[in-house]
Design a protein that fits this description.
The complex is a heterodimer of chains A (113) and B (118). Chain A is an all-beta fold and 113 residues long. Chain A has no helices and eleven strands. In chain A, the strands form two sheets. In chain A, strands 2, 4, 5, 9, 10 and 11 form a six-stranded mixed sheet that branches. A five-stranded antiparallel sheet of chain A has the order 1-3-8-7-6, with no helix packed on it. Chain B is mostly beta strands and 118 residues long. Helix content of chain B is 0%, strand content 47%. Chain B has no helices and eleven strands. Chain B has strands spanning 5-7, 10-13, 19-24, 31-37, 44-50, 53-56, 65-68, 75-79, 88-95, 108-109, 113-117. In chain B, the strands form two sheets. In chain B, strands 2, 4, 5, 6, 9, 10 and 11 form a seven-stranded mixed sheet that branches. Classes of the chains: A mainly beta (113), B mainly beta (118). The interface between A and B is medium-sized, with 27 and 29 residues.
Amino acid sequence: EDKVVQSPLSLVVHEGDTVTLNCSYEVTNFRSLLWYKQEKKAPTFLFMLTSSGIEKKSGRLSSILDKKELSSILNITATQTGDSAIYLCAVEDLEGSQGNLIFGKGTKLSVKP
Amino acid sequence: GAGVSQSPRYKVAKRGQDVALRCDPISGHVSLFWYQQALGQGPEFLTYFQNEAQLDKSGLPSDRFFAERPEGSVSTLKIQRTQQEDSAVYLCASSLAQSRSSYNSPLHFGNGTRLTVT
């Protein structure tokens, strides 16, 4: 049973479009939710969210956490071809023995020129 | 170096061979994690080190998998008698965190080693 579910699994848009990526989770003892961008190999850190309703922003990317709905969204405005990547959501669960971070399967974003 | 370095980048092994994957974390990073990422999946936890101590190895899929970090910096993940299902990208990540929590100290990932077992 997947504890972190991302949607959609893949998405194709054109440059300039705005996209919203979703992440929902179900963990015993939530600590934080993280977004990573994975191009080719290494996931690179984007955001860490711990508090509900507080938007984090970095350039054209923004993210917000909703602890009541057990979900988070990642928004990208005015998309560029360089935004093409897999976006991974990970949740830090302080319970259990599978390590701190539980990753979703990712959303593969393709931005066409 | 500036980031987490992993070697080799690619490894092809025949079934039954032993392999060793190396990870050089960011200097000064206390915590080190190994993840296995199968095609189309998110990374899955394998094992966690705090300095030289392996505090959690619950994610290692079988006793053919072994990891060490003898001096608290470089880590090696060894897979004995490789099987086809071991084919995946193996990611190493490190953080400054003094404990296993990533709170305020997110993970920095290496580029991974893509292992293909034929």
